[in-house]
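Memo subject: From amino acid sequence to discrete backbone structure tokens
Keywords: amino acid chain, backbone geometry, structure tokens, three-dimensional fold.
Body of memo: The sequence and its backbone structure tokens, given next.
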Amino acid sequence: MPLKSQPIRARFRVGTKGGSIPYSGTRELDRPVQTPRRSRAADVAKRVFDLTLALVALPLLAPPMLLIALAVKLTSKGPVLYWSDRVGRNNKIFRMPKFRSMRTDAPEVATHLLSNSGSHINSIGSLLRKTSLDELPQIYSVFKGDLSVVGPRPALHNQNDLVALRTERGVHELTPGLTGWAQVNGRDDLPIPIKVEYDCEYLQKKTFFLDLKIVCLTLVTVIRGDGVVH
């Protein structure tokens, strides 16, 4: 029987290490929300894919990661890594590392919300962001299981609008990823509602071959430096 379109009012709580943060906003959706059933075998296969790809990539990534760590340390004050609270699967908060591309006094908000983001970037931060080299330490999160190779990019803990939309559409049930369908279709250029639409499309159509396609497209996108907002 087809689903009837009906308004849906969403209220939820975002998990944290010490409990949960209530989200007080509401939103009406005049569309059906249907989350595909997850197969245990599919989850295991995706986890094996993630670990295999991470293990293959680690020896290749280790030398440049050491060089980048040294460059960050020598060119700016502060720690080499920046750890941020991110929203993971089922809205649980986890800590995600990146090479620090911003000054230590930069506000903890999404880059596109900064009025003059360039003034907050350290001397090599622009290069790291344009090439996505700042995200290499996130391979740690893949090994830990907080991230998948492919999935929606994890929201910051204070991006309530993005988290709300994803929760309403069932996207929060996916493990976030190093890259995703939205990232290869516009990345930072996409407004949040369009980004969530791509996340939903991935949720509905996700397969092993789609993941492979996204990984390949990600390499092209990173090489070309498409969709990066500094």
Summary: The CA atoms of residues 65 and 112 lie 26 Å apart. Confidence is low (pLDDT under 50) at residues 1-32. The radius of gyration is 18 Å.
